[in-house]
Amino acid sequence: MVADEKEVQVESKMSPKVFTLAEVLRHKKADSCWTVIHDKVYDVTKFLDEHPGGEEVLLEQAGTDATEGFEDVGHSTDAREMMKEYYIGELAEEDKKNSKDRGPKSWASDSSSNDNSWRSWLVPVGLACVASVIYRMYALPQAS
Fold first, then answer.
1. Residue 42 pairs with which residues in a beta bridge?
2. Taking burial as the number of CB atoms within 10 A of a residue's CB, which of 55, 78, 123, 133 is the most buried?
């Protein structure tokens, strides 16, 4: 391990080092690849060859906030645990997104989306019932 890496590890155990997005942006190549996920900065340079999706995926997100892409893929608990090894610091406060965007995506729906979901099927079911009544009234032979 190089002296700089030891310093970063020691600092991260005490108080996390703070990086701006501009600093992270300078590390978007295969020889120095940093990314931000949930306002935490990761140096994934050594992980490029090991990444199951290939190094291209990480290089596309290098130097940026990759939170959305990371969550869209649906990484496993093991993958999230592995991230700790590559953690080097926190994103500067002025570069952080608002707090509701932080943390893993919740797949649970809130009440407003539940309201919309039952309404989205209620209209077609209602129309099907009306069509059924009209069909029975006019298309079926009448009993005399």
1. 35, 87
2. 55
Which tokens in the block code for residue 143? 């009993």
Q: What is the reported pLDDT for 115?
A: 57
Q: Which residues of 57-74 are buried (b: 16+ CB within 10 A; e: fewer)?
A: ebbebbbbbbbeebeeee
Q: How far is CA 129 from CA 72, 79, 100, 135, in A?
A: 38, 49, 42, 10
Tell me which DSSP letter residue 82 carries: H
Higher pLDDT, residue 64 or 9? 64
Structure tokens at 23: 């600093």
pTM of this prediction? 0.59
pLDDT of 101 reads: 47
| Cβ neighbours of residue 62 closer than 8 Å, sequence gap 6 or more | 27, 28, 29, 33, 34, 35, 44
Q: What is the CA radius of gyration of the chain?
A: 26
